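Fold this sequence, please.
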Amino acid sequence: MKRVVILFTKICEAYLPDAFVFCLLLTLMVFGGALIMTPHSALELVDFWGKEFWSLNAFAMQMVFVLLAGHMLASTPLIQGLLGKMVKRVETERTALILISLFSILTCFLNWGFGLIVSGIFAVELAKKLKKVNFGLFVATAYSGFLVWHGGLSGSIPLKISGHDEILTKVFPNTSIPLTETIFSPLNLVIVISIFIIFPILSLALKTDEKVEVHVAASENSLSNHHENNSVRDFLENFKGFNLIFFLFFVLIIFSALRKGESLDIAKVNGIFLCLSLLLHSSPRRFLKALQDSIGFTSGIIIQFPFYAGLMGLMQHSGLADQISLVFVNISNPQTLPLWTFLSGGLVNFFIPSGGGQWVVQGPIMLKAAKTLQVDPGKISMALAWGDAWTNLIQPFWALPLLALAKLQLKDIMGYCLVYTFVSGVIISAFFLWF
């Protein structure tokens, strides 16, 4: 296992570019593939790319808020205090790896934005305490828990289809799929529990002798530079009543929506985490400081989302995504369709690393296949969701905030992530065939 990791790491160090460059290369690859495999001209393909470049702005803002709310909650004194107590109890690298893995899976199941950031903070703090560790593995293990996000409480596909989703209702009219048949289905829970058991063990098997001394500087606290002068401004910015009042506003809005029978969607999940951040940061000044510290982690998403939206347009309007998906559909039967949906979802995710974007492009094809072959649409939807989540471990887009936090490059964690991807692919594939 160590030789495999070292080999993968050397390959990544030699050939893997920055995540933004990776996005540009993928776009050119798809452009070339569409020129060869579809009847469209180069000018038409450029038009497809440009037509969708800004199309995911609203969804991108939702994703930015997932990350912002998650990071802001992770930076509250309560969460920081809990992390500090956990770090104090850890004395060995083996214990640290097991804890990072379990913590990452659990928190990403609850909310991917929160889990992605808080597990990264936990990994960095443990590495700093233990002084000399296999730091790339620490960060890769913190990222590995992100695999469960689409099978968790903030998964965009299960949340979308639990309400009125246009893509689902076009194929299955007047249908919505409750969370009991997606996130809380026996199949999904068994996959999550299996990863919860296997990944900590795998993290120990991946441990190599390449240790580095970790020094990650803490962010500058702008609050400490502010001089209190008992002015009206200071009183208002430090008034805790504002945060409490607007926390109650959010609680009442969410409670009212759920009482009316509305589903738990991305907006409501963001609202829950945002209002918790408001409450736990106690005052407007501390809340705004947390916001300033969090915004930097969203920069990769902000700049890359339009480029991936353009890539999605290329895949969708040229028909290339249909061709890829139909290859898997044509070799499927009722028993194997969920497996091929999972594998095709993992492949398409390289080019459309957004669960919502991938649902728009690939969802209709897989749902039509499910209807033709009389396969449960909830199971097919979750197969696509897990496919999207699976190759996120080797698609650099969502690793950007964690890498920024740890001050590492993609090549530093990719060797380990490749092993996590291979092992999880075998596990998930087996369960989609078995159930």
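Residues 2-215+236-434 form one domain. The chain has a mean pLDDT of 86.
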